[in-house]
Amino acid sequence: MGCILKQGGGLYSRVRVGAVLLAAGEGKRMGGVPKALIELGGVPLINRQLIALSGAGIDEVVVVTGHYHELVEPLVEQFPVRIARNSHPENGQPSSVRLGLEMLGGNFDAVIMALCDQPLINAQDITQLIAAFKKRKSGEIILPVVGDQRGNPIVISGVAMNQILDAGTNMVCRKFMDSHPEMVDHFQTENEHFIMDVDSLDDLVNFEKKTGWKLSIPNLSNHLEVESGNSEPVYMALQRLVTKC
């Protein structure tokens, strides 16, 4: 649950924190493999995110599914979360962001916008972000920054969440932050967990080289399409390439 922080003899009041976890992507750059199902240490990345959010005491989580919902949702249902299925995930991330925020509702002081493709995010990282939100001197959005690189997840206030929703269906958090820099408070950190994500096959290889941890592509032979003119399923082609690298 939300914590109370003590600093300089005073107390930061408890904040009610919700989270939207985006897991609706098609995984095009991953060759059609849903990133939510990629595994680290035998645990799907989406489960790792949910464990992190739970460990940080998030009050409520909405998971947005879309492409591959029939594979993602059974993994999510073991957690006390709500599922928002995007019936038109081809409309892109803005549609998933909006759907998640709408289902979460406005009864939160802060909302964490989380992605399922960040393998190393843990409960301590989420707790750091919440603490940065509580201690901010200005702004309505906490953006982690490592060096000069923007990271994720971000934390948005209830005020910012309502403004994003009011701005229309094409508004997404990155676009909103670029349009309202005065609302963004940069959380400068050396924690590289915030900037490590996996969008492509090359990212899987680079992640292993950098961390020593191997990300595994799930066996989805019964669900993924066969490449045109090739009897080899996409997931097998990706596994072969990773092994080759």
Describe what you observe in this structure.
The protein has two domains: 10-195, Alpha-Beta Complex (Spore Coat Polysaccharide Biosynthesis Protein SpsA, Chain A), CATH 3.90.550.10; 201-244, no CATH class. It has 245 residues and is of the alpha/beta class. The longest helix is centred in the middle third of the chain and has 13 residues, at 123-135. Strand 9 and strand 10 (149-150) form a beta hairpin. It has helices at residues 45-55, 69-76, 93-104, 123-135, 158-166, 173-179, 201-211, 234-244; strands spanning 5-7, 10-12, 17-23, 39-40, 43-44, 60-65, 82-85, 110-115, 141-146, 149-150, 154-157, 184-188, 215-216. The chain is globular, with a radius of gyration of 18 Å. Helices cover 33% and strands 21% of the residues.
Topology (SSEs and partners):
Layout: E1 5-7, E2 10-12, E3 17-23, E4 39-40, E5 43-44, H1 45-55, E6 60-65, H2 69-76, E7 82-85, H3 93-104, E8 110-115, H4 123-135, E9 141-146, E10 149-150, E11 154-157, H5 158-166, H6 173-179, E12 184-188, H7 201-211, E13 215-216, H8 234-244
Parallel strand pairs: 3-6, 3-8, 6-7, 9-12
Antiparallel strand pairs: 1-2, 4-5, 4-13, 8-11, 9-10, 9-11
